[in-house]
Amino acid sequence: MTDFTTEHRLDGGSRPAVVFMSALFAGGWIWEHPYRRLEEQGWPVLRTHEAICALDRRVAGSIERLGDSFLAACDEAGAGEVIVCANSLGGLVAIDLAGRHPERVRGIVVSGAPGLTPDPDVGLSFDRRGSVQPFGQEFGDRMLAALFHDRSRAFSDERKDEVGEMLRRPESMVSMARSLKATRTYQVKPALDRVACPSIYIWGRHDRMTPVDPWLDVLAGYPVEIVVVEDSGHIPMIERGDEYTAALEGFAGRCAGALA
Questions:
Q1: Rounded to two decimals, what is the model's pTM?
Q2: Which of 50, 90, 176, 229 is 20 to 30 A off residue 170, Cα-Cα?
């Protein structure tokens, strides 16, 4: 049994599977738009269900272990060669996997990755005496302000409550703290140096959690594709699903064509 459970449809012929990794707070539901679009087009697809901070702290606290767990879930489902799509903390996992498994990772699609800026303020406190707790109106408002540029495109109250319920569990807060610590110590540039597969970075112009400008500066020295999504914050696959998915479709097609 793997750490992640999955939804998948992998009968897409010889093309690599487009696989979507959960984010720190959000499960596989953030990928609904691109997952369904590619599924309709006959691509082999897979997405994990569990948010990273819902996993065991030993897994959540290591970029490498998260990658190993993600690939184990792909193995269990029968996905071989993959194009890894990941947002937020998962973006570092995708970069790391590409460097460690070049024989298998045929492309990476990264957005909102941490590692180049200080931890964002989303209204959470690891001190139980903190004035802002992971539930209620104040927490919800601060979280949505950090994640979205256009609040009218934010996820539903049901999803917001789901995240708050998960973060009320002490073990989830510990896993989140371990995850954030892992992003502080992860060496981004050496990891980028090891990536040989095609890479595209699809980033919200107004990402407050993980601003795009430091990544644009670093990525200028690498042969990667960059798409900056206007009028979007940290989660462009939700906030600007059509733009995100169009960029992903073109990139996946180029990756598959290069392997033909």
A1: 0.91
A2: 90
